[in-house]
Amino acid sequence: MTVTSTRAKPEGILPDRTEAAAPKKRRRNPLPYILLLPAVLIVLVDMGYPLLRQITMAFQHFSLEQQFGKPAEFAGLDNFTRVLGDSAFWLTLGRSLAFCLVCAALTMAIGIGGALLLTKLSGPVSVFVQAAMLLAWAMPVLSSLQVFQWIFDSRSGVVDWTLAGLGLQGMAGYNWFSNPLTFFAVAAILVIWMSVPLVVFMVYASVTQIDESMLEASTLDGANGWKQFREITVPTIAPVLLLVTILEIIWDLRVFTQIFILQKNGGITEQTNVLGTYVYQVGLSGGDYGVASATALIMLVITLLLTWRYVTQFLKQGEV
Q1: For 35, 97, 142, 212, which has the most beta carbons within 10 A of its beta carbon?
Q2: Its principal location (predicted)?
Q3: Structural contact between residues 96 and 252, judged by C-beta atoms closer than 8 angstroms
Q4: CA 111 to chain CA mean position, Å
Q5: Distance from C-alpha of 5 to C-alpha of 257, rounded to nearest angstrom
Q6: What is the pLDDT along the chain (320 residues), one digit of tens a residue?
Q7: What is the distance between the alpha carbons of residues 99 and 270, in angstroms, rounded to a whole number?
Q8: Cα 286 to Cα 186: distance, rounded to the nearest angstrom
Q9: What are residue 61's DSSP bridge partners?
Q10: Which one, of 217, 90, 198, 94, lies nearest residue 136 by Cα?
């Protein structure tokens, strides 16, 4: 005869396995979202309305007459057709992409090298160098432009005087802004000089957070400086490098003030236009705001295409 035990399970001692395995729903605190809401609304109003207005104008015949109240007519894709059919736009686009990629690559290379050098300097020297770079980065763009125009001035510029003193023929009184190649060389130096400090600061801050034990262990394994940089430093600070690269591409593709001011010294505007100055000339100077808006939208799409790969990699890094 088989006896079946009907002993009751003591309550409150051993919970049921199904109950223990069931995940508990975490109750989200709404406070962070409430605090974030004002900032999101400000960004939407500050950037959303201009973007919506620009998209609307890109599909309209919008000129000076519309500025004074005349209703704008729907243009469809006519503005985009005019932009894409203009050979000057394609020349400007190629020039802008080349200038952007060269400046961004040199800025990243110089900035990363400067950050690594900072880690090797003594405390007081490192602080002095960082303070000098901070002043250079914080200097207003127009002030920097005035300095660079004086340095490369054809009549009293220190660069021409130095090169002529070294015996280089034809450099005395040379106008750096009258030739597209030298024009963009000076513009690139200016853009890179103003961008490098930020890259140095961000990379230096991330490099100093690397665990020293990892570097010491790799040294004991026989890894040299380059191998440590490639296999330890770069993977560790990859999110920062991706973020800075995205910002550099966006800034260098949208550069305007430096080119616009330097163009006044050379008189070769058409040969030195980038996308920013091209949009300005078509819109504000030419009065065709519809075509200028279409050009700006194309410029936005190009920026997104250039940075999409970096943005996706940056988001993947954030999910790890």
Answers
A1: 97
A2: membrane
A3: no
A4: 14
A5: 88
A6: 444 444 544 554 455 555 555 555 567 788 888 888 988 888 888 888 888 888 998 998 888 888 787 888 888 899 999 999 989 999 999 999 999 999 999 999 999 999 989 888 877 888 898 888 888 888 888 888 888 888 888 887 888 888 888 888 778 888 888 889 999 999 999 999 999 999 999 999 898 888 777 777 777 767 777 777 777 788 888 888 988 998 899 899 989 999 998 888 777 888 899 999 999 988 888 888 999 999 999 998 998 888 888 778 767 765 54
A7: 15
A8: 27
A9: 73
A10: 198
Contact 66, 289 (CB under 8 A): yes
Name the amino acid, one letter, at 92. Answer: T
Amino acid occupying residue 267: G
* DSSP 3-state of 126: helix
Q: Any alpha helices (H) in the chain, and if so which ranges?
A: 17-21, 31-43, 49-58, 64-67, 78-84, 87-118, 123-138, 141-151, 158-165, 180-207, 212-220, 225-228, 234-236, 238-253, 257-266, 269-272, 275-280, 289-319
What pTM was estimated for this model as a whole? 0.79
Residue count of the chain: 320
How many Cβ atoms are within 10 Å of 237's Cβ, its own excluded?
21
Whether 274 and 99 have beta carbons less than 8 Å apart is answered as: yes
Q: Which class is 74-319 in CATH?
A: mainly alpha
Contacts of 240 (CB under 8 A, 6+ apart): 202, 203, 205, 206
Rounded-to-integer distance, Cα 270 and Cα 286, Å: 14
